[in-house]
């Protein structure tokens, strides 16, 4: 059973988009942090995104950061069986390298297996700022 409340759902979508009612400046919804906080092992993602079922644990929240070998072992090919992220927000980095509970990932800080050229070093701030000459 999935609970649903129209007002709450609409408000959450607005908040996630960065246009909701929040008195704090520069507030952003961090999808990676939320995934780790509320779906630490990735079971919910695995249920609704079967393309990522081969990825173990919390790595499922950021598959683009895995090595080519890990992706191959999981049966994932970025750009073919699963898309590259549209944006990668800079504030995600502090959560990507951590497992649930705050312990560092056993392989240390991981970089992308292959960065999408058109989005390299352009976090979400780039897309929503007025200054585009960066």
UniProtKB/TrEMBL annotation:
Keyword Aminoacyl-tRNA synthetase belongs to the record: no
InterPro entries assigned: Crypto/Photolyase_FAD-like_sf, Cryptochr/Photolyase_FAD-bd, Cryptochrome/DNA_photolyase_1
Keywords of the record: FAD, Flavoprotein
GO terms assigned for molecular function: damaged DNA binding; deoxyribodipyrimidine photo-lyase activity; FAD binding
Free-text comment on the cofactor: Binds 1 FAD per subunit.
Cofactors: FAD
Top-rank taxon: Eukaryota
GO BP field: photoreactive repair
Domain Cryptochrome/DNA photolyase FAD-binding: 2-96
Similarity section: Belongs to the DNA photolyase class-1 family.
Protein name: CRYD protein
Originating species: Neopipo cinnamomea
